[in-house]
Amino acid sequence: MKPKAHLVRSGTVLTLAAVMISLSACSGGSGGAASNGEATTTLKLGVGAAPASFDPTQIENNGNALELAQPVYDSLLRRAPNGDIQPWLAKDWKYNDNKTQLTLDLRDDVTFSDGTKFDAKSAADNLDRFKAKGGPQASMLADVSNVAAADADTVTLTLTQPNPALASYLTTVAGLQVSPASFDNPSLATEPAGSGPYKLDTAATTSGSIYTYTARDNYWNKDAVKFNKIEIRVLTDPSAMANAFASGQIDAGPAAVGTLDQFKGSGAQVDTVEGDWAGFMMFDRTGRLSKPLGDVRVRQAFNMALDKEALLQTLQKGLGTVTAQIFSPEDPGYVPELDKKYSHDPQQAKKLLADAGYPDGIDVTMVAASVTPADVLSVYAQQLAEAGIRVTWETQDINAFLGTMFSGKSAINPMQLGAKGGWEMINQLVAPNAPWNPLKDQTPELEAMIKDVQFAADDAARTAAVKKVNTYLVDNAWFAPWYRLASPYASKADHVGVEMQYQQTLPSIYNFKPAS
Amino acid sequence: MILFFVKRALASLVLLFVVSLLTFSLLNLTSGQAVARTILGPLATDEQVHQRAEQLGLLAPFWTRFGDWLTHAVTGNLGRSWFSSEQVTDVLTSRLPVTLSVVICTVIVTAVLSTLLGVAAAVYRGWVDRAVQIAAIVGFALPGFWVALLLVSTLAVQAHLFAATGYIAPNASVGGWLSTITLPVASLAIGSIAALAQTLRGSLIDVLRSDFIRTLRAGGVSERSVLFRHALRSAAPPWLTVLSLQLVGLLGGAVIIEKIFALPGIGSVAEQATARGDLPLVLGVVVLMVIIVIVVNLLVDIANGILNPKVRIS
Predict the structure, then answer these.
(1) Which residue has the higher pLDDT, B182 or B311?
(2) Which of A38, A115, B199, B284 has the most CB within a 10 Å radius?
(3) Is B86 in a helix, a strand, or coil?
(4) Nearest-CA distance A217 → chain B (Å)
(5) Which residues in chain B are closer than 8 Å to A190, comparing Cβ atoms?
(6) How far apart (Å, rounded) are the C-alpha atoms in residues B80 and B78?
(7) How far is A1 from chain B (nearest CA, A)?
(8) Is residue A334 part of a domain?
């Protein structure tokens, strides 16, 4: 005898399934993407990482984090897509003659989202707070000894020494303005209070997942507000980003190199911006940790050992430019000829090693982040071996890896770093006390050249001085860069127009406009 | 009966203590300075890093730090994330419903479909049994994430029937909620259904062959009653045990699915917190998981007691 109850059950299950599918289909699985050419008033973006905090003093990574802060915060100065510094909350800015005082002339028509008026005192208090909080980027204002509100719309920053990058810092997190009424709000990390064009819609926001911003009234720059609403989704998985793009949940987002085919298949327009450079960070140029590295010929050998073109093709699908310098084309210190300085020549590398007193080559231990795939490490090792350099890898988890580098225990290791403008780069990588110079390498010539950059009388003199530093660094093989990476950014051309932003993998919010 | 619950409660507290101590010790292997450096990034000065390490209490001795955490945890204060400064309890309460949504729906779908398939295989035998067994093997073999990617590209991206990413809460929109959890549930359920259908099939076949079933049939009890009132109840315990193991396993397996579908659940926050060494958040997740496992085991024991008088205490 065969019971029939299960037939009833299976019928129920099938009906239930049918109901579920139709209910979900009705709710719009496509995420409500606008079709048939309607005006897009919602900007839908994808980002690869959630913002650490809406408190500007705690934001670490500029290139990726600014896009999420810009809807709600204004900065004192703004950076145009090509890198030029432009007025924003400050209408004008100028230095005194010996560049130890920067005076900002502020707008007087700006209010924060909570109604507080923006003035010189709030600007001064914000700058003081940024420095005092000791967050990841507090060193941007390290040279600022005092900030004073000269009158209601003039603020003066006094410096202990000239800092050519200061105006540039004021276009990023150091310049973001928080409403003073929220300075001590313990929830500032999740409830921003700024003067930006949008307000965070906390009801439609899920921290770490989706951030919704709605345009606010009384914003001082109506032209900058091109959308009624912004929706930013956090998609940490590259395929999730590609799927969200293909199904219409986002109109633009960063495209990981491995998913480019999928993006192109969905009709994406892909633009690229060169933001990072990859290469060997040589921390030990005096031979303290690894004697051979103290000889410039050995360091030059490292520069010639790898087949950078092939690596770029294999690892980055050719997106980027082979280089031997750490400065990028948009920076005044860039010297085009230096890109070709060291060509791939293992035999010449071996000869250099022999000239330096190592006819049998050298042995070196390098640390690498454990996230680096083992087969990539073995490719590096193989190519280095052809040049007479025998590598032993020591992989460490990311925390330990960073710790090893900054405590000066690593002589040389592979690394990827964001490109920076002239003085910022020198200050962070090359100066004797630079955070990326833990062994405090210095030479008298380099120090003199650095001073020339710092005290340059005008932009033309500074550009020439940075070029000199750059040439010195490359001739003396202070680094062994492989290539600049071009980060792809995908967008739906029929929904949004976007302009790439200087040294930011994610474009500024101001660079988006509706397609029509 | 009371004694049963009291003993359970005590055992649970010991378990919670041991697991949190173990987790604390493991994460303690990275020095406080290194974590502070990761929080602040490369541009902070050594002095700032030291200051932040002190602020977060990272430089105190191990037992002081653990004791501190424990005394706060028992009052319900799990501290703040070192990286985002959010209250750990806030993060967990906002993310738990998402993961539970997916896991509970998967368990329900799994329970229903595996019962269907297991009963069909055990009762009909023949080609039905073989078909179910083959389907089970295929279900085991297919990796959950592969199924997920396949479902997303066909049903979400191409056919626009479901959402490709994200989560909509049921109180915001039931249709939206279904559109966001159907594919994750389907991806997770396939493996579970395979395991449970096989388990039920096996134990049901055994039970249907046993003496007491033959006696019931001989006594004139209807086949339907034999199957649903008697046989299934006896065959249920192994199936229930595997179901509870599946549920616990799903909580972990949800990590990959949450990543693929960008669901703001416990799995994704656990993964990120562990990678960064965000101790308060990792401890919070671990404590939560242990509590869930304890509750699930308790429920399964009670269900077993209801179904099978032999295991009851009194």
Answers:
(1) B182
(2) B284
(3) coil
(4) 27
(5) 86
(6) 7
(7) 6
(8) yes
> Domain of A373: which CATH number?
3.10.105.10
Structural domain of residue A293, as residue ranges?
5-11+275-486
- The mean pLDDT of B61-87, rounded to a whole number, is 89
Q: Quote the crossing angle between the two packed helices B266-276 and B88-124, to the nearest 10°.
A: 120
Predicted TM-score of the model (pTM): 0.86
Q: Which positions of chain A have pLDDT values less than 50?
A: 1-11, 25-38
Residues B253 and A88: their CA atoms lie apart, in Å, by 48
Structural domains in chain A (count)? 1
| A291 lies in some domain | yes
Residue A467 within any structural domain of the chain: yes
pLDDT tens digits for range B126-148: 999 999 999 999 988 988 889 99
B261 CB within 8 Å of a chain A CB = yes
Our CA-based measurement puts residue B20 at a distance from the nearest CA of chain A, in whole angstroms, of 22
Cα separations in angstroms, A246 against A22, A212, A227, B157: 21, 21, 22, 6
Residue A32: predicted pLDDT: 40
- Which one of B31, B154, B165, B223 would you mutate to disrupt binding with A, by most A Cβ within 10 Å of its Cβ? B165
pLDDT at B314: 56
Q: Enter the tokens of residue B42.
A: 């490369």
Tell me the per-residue pLDDT of B26-59, one tens digit each, with 9 for 90 and over: 888 777 777 888 888 878 888 888 888 888 888 8
How many Cα atoms occupy the beta-carbon half-sphere of A362 within 13 Å? 27
The verdict on residue A118 lying in a domain is no
